[in-house]
Amino acid sequence: MLDIVQYLPAKRKASPSGWVSFNAVCCYHNNNAPDKRLRGGIKTSEQGWSYHCFNCGYTASFIQGRTLSYKARRLLSWLGVSERDIEFANLESLRHRSVNGLIEDRQRTFNMLQGIEFEERELPAGAEFVQPGTTYWSYLLARYAPMDFPFMIDPLSKRRGIIIPFTHNNRVVGWTKRFLDAHNPRYFSDSQPGYVFGTDLQHPDWQHVIVTEGIFDALSIGGLSLMHNDINDAQARLIRSLDRQITVVPDQDTAGLDLIDRAVELGWAVSIPNWQDGIKDVNDAVKKYGRLGALLTIMQARETSRIKIELRKKALVKRIQH
User: What pLDDT does residue 152 have?
Assistant: First the structure.
């Protein structure tokens, strides 16, 4: 497979999450001002690569076993890859498909039936990465967010906020923006039905997965976010596909009670820790106890028995009412 990284500009920066940022090569060709702020980003894997420009919005991706798309070919040519090497890479990919294509097609069909395929989406035009020392950076630190995550901002927007990209299989499939002011709505999202945030953040050797309601709950604990207080059937299939022990941690408010009932219906474990007053959700717990401390309270309160879950739910109702 063509090693695209060797063609990237010398000035580049790698993040712990696997993204490599550099001055985007697509902007000039798309009638935009040349990028000088490392707004081009690429992430590679054993299966291929995904590219996103957070300046002009250009996206391209490649998966081994598939034909190089028009957009991928354009990107490679802009990076200086010769037409001969592009054609050779395309032939090598098709040769790989001749060996593994049938298996991959069956797996892809299974994934689609399970509702875990999402179309690629573009981020807001002009989005750029959050920089240290800014108000946005301070907000993320206060939320105990992982600072190696590719948080972004939209400097052209009238309402300041943090843009959180939604990814699935290392492709951007949507985003949400958390506004920093006190006005409603607090979030504005471009999300696809059945999507669960955080699947790409899970480590392959983890045996447990924590399911939360909010985005920052998931980010602060390394879990998944439903982005509401329900679990639809497509989300349930996606979460089950991770093949891990599932623990649902609802927000400790009236809305969270519905999530408890849905988790019990699915046969999943529920955790309702007896946190101190004022701690409503996982992110609050992480800010109070630290990530490890919050995780311990969650696992200690984990229940699989319907009767015990119901008892903890009744105790939660009493706390909410008082």
Answer: 92
